[in-house]
Write a structure and sequence with these properties.
3 strands, globular
Length: 211
């Protein structure tokens, strides 16, 4: 497993760096935890539901042992790509924090994790509780589990929409501008030609990019 993931990372990390338009930075250490040790070996306390974690400042990634994952879990290579995006973006923004909607949306889109689960989460919210407004999403995630799950899904869909609207070059310009400290409002205007209230008005619940 470790050898397979190392080979994958050697190919994938440069590709992720190129797509995001940011350097890969320094060394990256990836640990596949022995069964039952995922929580204990990390430099901090990860959430209970995490399938993998990234610590950009330290250049660390931790993955569960295959023996600790359900049989229908996504491939570890996908989880590794997700976490490598976190490290790359975290390094690009340092010492500034990465807005969570951008960090989580990018990781899902770039790792290829858009699929039925994202669609189901957004569809159920639309039917039973309502979506999170874009201007609320970009300010931060809800603290409750269900709200955070919806915020993850909407972040993925919003980033996917940005790529569809502005292209890969637009996505790289957005990352660079926000990493340099530009506000989300000014950056979205520069990349899409639309102000945040206009985006809020035009991105209706039925405008799912991920289908």
């Amino acid at each position: 497993t470790v050898r397979r993931l190392a080979d994958h990372a050697a190919r994938s990390l440069p590709a992720l760096s190129t797509r995001l338009g940011i350097p890969s930075g320094g060394l990256l250490d990836v640990y596949v935890a022995l069964p039952g040790t995922f929580q204990a070996i990390q430099p901090g306390a990860p959430p209970d539901w995490a399938d993998g974690t990234a610590w950009p400042r330290q250049g660390l990634i931790f993955l569960h042992s295959p023996h600790d994952r359900p049989g229908d879990a996504e491939p570890l290579e996908t989880v590794l790509d997700h976490e490598m995006v976190h490290v790359l973006v975290g390094r690009a923004f340092a010492p500034r924090p990465v807005p969570r909607w951008l960090q989580e949306g990018l990781a899902q889109v770039v790792a290829g994790e858009l699929g039925p689960q994202v669609v189901d989460t957004i569809t159920n919210a639309r039917l039973y509780g309502g979506l999170i407004p874009i201007d609320t999403l970009v300010r931060g995630f809800p603290s409750d589990v269900l709200g955070a799950r919806l915020a993850y899904a909407q972040s993925a869909d919003f980033v996917a929409w940005l790529v569809a609207e502005a292209g890969e070059d637009g996505l790289r310009r957005l990352i660079q501008a926000m990493a340099n400290g530009d506000t989300v409002e000014s950056t979205l205007w520069e990349v899409t030609g639309r102000r945040l209230p206009e985006l809020q008005a035009m991105l209706k619940p039925d405008d799912l990019v991920v289908r």
